[in-house]
């Protein structure tokens, strides 16, 4: 071999097209495993003579850990290992088709070539990813449309709000932007697993189960200085309010720029969105899932206990909670450890809720195992099962005596309207039936009993608990809150408390009512309003009591989650208490986006964003934030002058799209009275 360093042509465009990696903007070759790619290099005198290639990855490559492969030119592609097939030769260059095995370790490889007895010459580096288009890969996804959505789509919709009132917002995953791939590779190299034993960690990187679990730990900052620091206090000084982010790129870039210090702050959808970006980037099909009325069962008894005082105030007692919604991930891969019926969608959750194996990580839990109540299977199936199935127990707690009295229990409260974005459309798809059998059906109760039995929770009630009055009596009255009118920030909140006497004799009821602003986790932040009333209900009578909470009453107290919990604790004379509660999520006012003219690649197009101040006071500190993959670089921030009462503002800015196709523009408007009014617009970009 000549002493000169060979120069390599990586055929970036052609290889990227074949490997579905064209959306990466990289000067480095990025290919998928189990599929051939072509390179041409010169600097060899007699090219076809006994060339040996060396592909290696990680700190201490070895054949034993499958992080080092040496292979010579053969006439066919090897089924098991790496192989090289000669494509063509000329006087001083050679074209080779290189194939990696379908279960190769993923990551950045160094490739070199050796001829005869000379020392190896470096050809350069390339990155190898999972291959959902290849039938032999653990992440193989038969549907091309699903591969497009769950690997290649950079825009997502995350569902939020509550089960009575589902809302949604857009998110820019941006997995192909800038140096996101490099950041994803850094995330793997900063995990606790890698720090403790880099050689073993890298050797496991062929396995989506392993990487999914490791990355669920790394996306949260707990234990390992991971990417995002969680904060559910309602106070976000020293960082960004979790509801202000509109994409993962800014978060991942901030983490890298700060020298890998956790980014402040995240809540569940931020963790789920960042994990989606990382896994899609590496080639594992992934989506976000929103579960409404999601249980956080801290003590593992498949029960969520909530406590209320005599005034109907929700008490922060015990570690269990029910969140208005919770967002986690599903990733698609086979479960060779469990068997074929457990393959497919696997639940991963990067939100740090409970430790698993001593660190904050969760999953992969087979969705099929969750549905069947097979809580003994790896990983973390009991926690996910409880999130969608736990029974709710509501208690009256007397702090003076320490006495607990059961008000009522409900087995159909938890796990509602489980939602994800449709494939190829901006719509919601309900996947509740993939997580559990129909609520209230015999099959669903059987699965629940099976799960309790497997966890050693035979009895309905915990025999070790202090003796409490746990016999459920039948209530004499029923109650509910109805919404009367719109649920909008800036408008008065009108509700009706509806009470009905279920008995055939008159009942006197004393009602204590409260309204608190909460976070989406139902954690109470500020009291907004309280009132009480006394009423006598004739036999079988129903009465309605209007409740008005004026905007000035709640405006200062509202959190950026825009959630209010109203409760009415009804003390029935000579009867048992009845608890009526409702969680309300208010909507922000609308914001409107118009694209003025046709959007063409590399041509300026003007976008107009309009907002009308709906309240009768001035709003100030107005900021508009805009982002969208392939529509603009990074994030555009525009300051907008204050808006007087009912005044309309219109802001124009220019985009220069960089790629054709259906793209999404995300807009976030904030001011002193309204936080994070989000909307998105699909933009069709033509060549």
From TrEMBL:
Question: What does the entry comment about cofactor binding?
Answer: Binds 1 Ca(2+) ion per subunit.
Task: Report domain Transglutaminase-like positions.
Answer: 260-352
The UniProt entry, under SUPFAM superfamilies, shows:
Cysteine proteinases, E set domains, Transglutaminase, two C-terminal domains
- Listed cofactors: Ca(2+)
- EC id: 2.3.2.13
Q: Which keywords does this chain's UniProt record carry?
A: Acyltransferase, Calcium, Metal-binding, Transferase
Pfam assignment, any one: Transglut_N
Catalytic activity reads:
L-glutaminyl-[protein] + L-lysyl-[protein] = [protein]-L-lysyl-N(6)-5-L-glutamyl-[protein] + NH4(+)
Q: Name one GO molecular function term.
A: metal ion binding
Protein residues bound to Ca(2+)? 389, 391, 439, 444
Q: Which residues form a coiled coil?
A: none
Q: Does the keyword Acyltransferase apply?
A: yes
Question: Which SMART domains does its entry note?
Answer: TGc (SM00460)
Q: Which residues form the active site?
A: 268, 326, 349
Claim: Membrane is one of the keywords in the record: no
Record PANTHER family = PROTEIN-GLUTAMINE GAMMA-GLUTAMYLTRANSFERASE, PROTEIN-GLUTAMINE GAMMA-GLUTAMYLTRANSFERASE E
Instruction: Give the family, as the similarity comment puts it.
Output: Belongs to the transglutaminase superfamily. Transglutaminase family.
Q: What is this protein called?
A: protein-glutamine gamma-glutamyltransferase
The organism named in the record is Regulus satrapa (Golden-crowned kinglet)
UniProt lists the gene as Tgm3_0
């Amino acid at each position: 071999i000549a002493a000169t360093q060979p120069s390599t042509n990586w055929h970036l465009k052609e290889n990227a097209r074949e490997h579905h990696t064209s959306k990466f903007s990289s000067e480095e070759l990025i290919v998928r495993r189990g599929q051939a790619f072509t390179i041409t290099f010169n600097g060899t005198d007699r090219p076809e003579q006994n060339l040996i290639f060396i592909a290696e990855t990680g700190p201490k490559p070895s054949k034993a850990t499958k992080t080092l492969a040496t292979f010579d030119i053969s006439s066919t592609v090897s089924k098991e290992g790496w192989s090289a097939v000669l494509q063509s030769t000329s006087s001083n260059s050679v074209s080779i088709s290189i194939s990696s095995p379908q279960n190769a370790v993923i990551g950045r490889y160094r490739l070199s070539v050796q001829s005869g007895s000379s020392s190896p010459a470096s050809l350069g580096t390339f990155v190898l990813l999972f291959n959902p288009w290849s039938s032999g890969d653990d992440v193989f996804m038969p549907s091309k449309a699903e591969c497009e959505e769950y690997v290649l789509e950079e825009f997502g919709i995350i569902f939020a709000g509550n089960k009575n009132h589902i809302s949604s917002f857009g998110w820019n995953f941006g997995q192909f932007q800038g140096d996101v791939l490099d950041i994803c590779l850094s995330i793997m190299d900063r995990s606790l697993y890698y720090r403790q034993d880099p050689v073993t960690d890298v050797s496991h990187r062929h396995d989506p189960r392993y990487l999914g679990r490791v990355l669920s730990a790394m996306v949260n900052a707990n234990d390992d200085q991971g990417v995002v620091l969680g904060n559910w206090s309602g106070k976000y000084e020293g960082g960004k309010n979790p509801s202000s982010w509109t994409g993962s790129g800014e978060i991942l870039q901030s983490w890298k720029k700060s020298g890998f210090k956790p980014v402040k702050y995240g809540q569940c959808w931020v963790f789920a969105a960042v994990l989606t970006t990382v896994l899609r980037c590496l080639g594992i099909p992934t989506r976000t899932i929103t579960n409404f009325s999601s249980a956080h069962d801290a003590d593992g008894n498949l029960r969520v206990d909530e406590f209320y005082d005599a005034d109907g105030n929700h008490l922060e007692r015990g570690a269990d909670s029910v969140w208005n919604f919770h967002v986690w991930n599903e990733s698609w891969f086979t479960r060779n450890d469990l068997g074929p019926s457990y393959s497919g969608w696997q639940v991963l959750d990067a939100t740090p809720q409970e430790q698993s194996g001593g660190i904050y990580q969760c999953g992969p839990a087979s969705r099929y195992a969750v549905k069947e109540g097979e809580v003994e299977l790896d990983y973390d199936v009991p926690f996910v099962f409880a999130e969608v199935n736990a029974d709710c127990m509501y208690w009256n707690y007397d702090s003076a005596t320490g006495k607990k009295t059961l008000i009522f229990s409900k087995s159909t409260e938890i796990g509602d309207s489980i939602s994800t974005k449709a494939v190829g459309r901006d719509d919601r798809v309900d996947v509740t039936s993939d997580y559990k059998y129909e609520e209230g059906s015999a099959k669903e109760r059987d699965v629940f009993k099976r799960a309790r039995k497997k966890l050693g929770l035979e009895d309905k009630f915990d025999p070790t608990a202090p003796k409490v009055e746990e016999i459920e009596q039948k209530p004499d009255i029923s109650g509910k809150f109805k919404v009367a009118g719109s649920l909008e920030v800036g408008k008065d909140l009108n509700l009706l408390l509806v009470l009905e006497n279920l008995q055939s004799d008159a009942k006197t009821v004393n009602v204590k009512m409260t309204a608190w602003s909460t976070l989406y986790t139902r954690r109470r932040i500020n009291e907004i309003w309280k009132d009480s009333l006394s009423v006598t209900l004739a036999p079988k009578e129903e009465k309605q009591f209007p409740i008005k909470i004026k905007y000035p009453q709640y405006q200062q107290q509202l959190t950026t989650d825009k959630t209010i919990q109203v409760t009415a604790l009804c003390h029935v004379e000579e009867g048992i208490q009845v608890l009526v509660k409702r969680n309300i999520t208010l909507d922000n006012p609308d914001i409107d986006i118009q694209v003025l003219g046709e959007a063409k690649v590399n041509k300026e197009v003007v976008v107009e964003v309009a907002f009308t101040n709906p309240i009768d006071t001035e709003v100030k500190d107005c900021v508009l934030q805009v982002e969208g993959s392939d529509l603009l670089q990074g994030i555009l921030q525009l300051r907008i002058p204050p808006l007087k009462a009912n005044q309309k503002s219109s802001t124009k800015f220019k985009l220069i799209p960089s790629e054709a196709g259906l793209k999404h523009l995300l807009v976030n408007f904030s001011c002193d009275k309204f936080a994070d009014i989000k909307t998105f617009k699909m933009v069709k970009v033509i060549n």
